[in-house]
């Protein structure tokens, strides 16, 4: 845990050096593990941002695409943090078992239901992995909506800090009476409803309805 806390401290220092973070709904972090943090995914700044904003007493386990194993610094850091590698383009059953094991043992996970970062900044169609794990392990999901982070790289070149908003929603329970796809829609709708309209993407109409 000491190494995780050290990395989290570095993440906070890095994030606060480039951004002014506005957090809404942090009382929803009162939920104790096990749980899954589910967030929209805009840039490579998202993981350190979520790490920096997560409760200091909670150790988040995160996922990374298997391709990053080829980058030695990322490989060493990710392994030391206890992350889980995922093979893209296929159902990685080994990674799924690892995730379920983390949750069954009272851990917390940080995941993006979209599976990959959005190239447009708007929500993409959600994949079923997060809902599947929540149902299988019987844990709640804490939905998170973030925006502004996509401006960090541009503003850094101008030596400006960026205003970033992190909105944390109330914990959700997946409904066993609904299908996996229906639960995924429910989760994505909850995230969309917390985002400004231009970020809602394929869930725009749903977000307005919410």
Summarize the structure.
The chain is of the alpha/beta class and 210 residues long. The protein has helices at 2-18, 46-53, 72-80, 93-104, 129-137, 152-157, 180-194, 204-209; strands at 19-24, 35-39, 60-65, 84-86, 108-111, 141-147, 162-168. The termini are far apart.
Q: Overview of this structure, please?
A:
- 39% of the residues lie in helices and 18% in strands.
- It is an alpha/beta fold.
- The protein has one domain (2-209): Glycerol-3-phosphate (1)-acyltransferase (3-Layer(aba) Sandwich).
- The chain has a seven-stranded mixed beta sheet with strand order 1-7-6-2-5-3-4, sandwiched between helices.
What's the topology here?
Blueprint: H1 2-18, E1 19-24, E2 35-39, H2 46-53, E3 60-65, H3 72-80, E4 84-86, H4 93-104, E5 108-111, H5 129-137, E6 141-147, H6 152-157, E7 162-168, H7 180-194, H8 204-209
Parallel strand pairs: 1-7, 2-5, 2-6, 3-4, 3-5
Antiparallel strand pairs: 6-7
Helix pairs in contact: 1-2
State the CATH superfamily name.
Glycerol-3-phosphate (1)-acyltransferase
* Poorly predicted regions: none
Helix percentage range? 25-40%
The helix/strand class is: alpha/beta
Largest sheet: 7 strands, mixed
Rounded to the nearest angstrom, the distance between the terminal CA atoms is 39 Å
Tally of contiguous helical segments: 8
Q: Report the strand count.
A: 7
Average pLDDT, all residues: 91
Beta-strand percentage range: 15-25%
Over all CA atoms, what is the radius of gyration?
16 Å
Question: Biggest sheet, strands in spatial order?
Answer: 1-7-6-2-5-3-4
> What is the H/E order?
HEEHEHEHEHEHEHH
CATH architecture: 3-Layer(aba) Sandwich
The CATH class turns out to be Alpha Beta
The geometry reads as globular
Number of domains: 1
CATH topology: Glycerol-3-phosphate (1)-acyltransferase
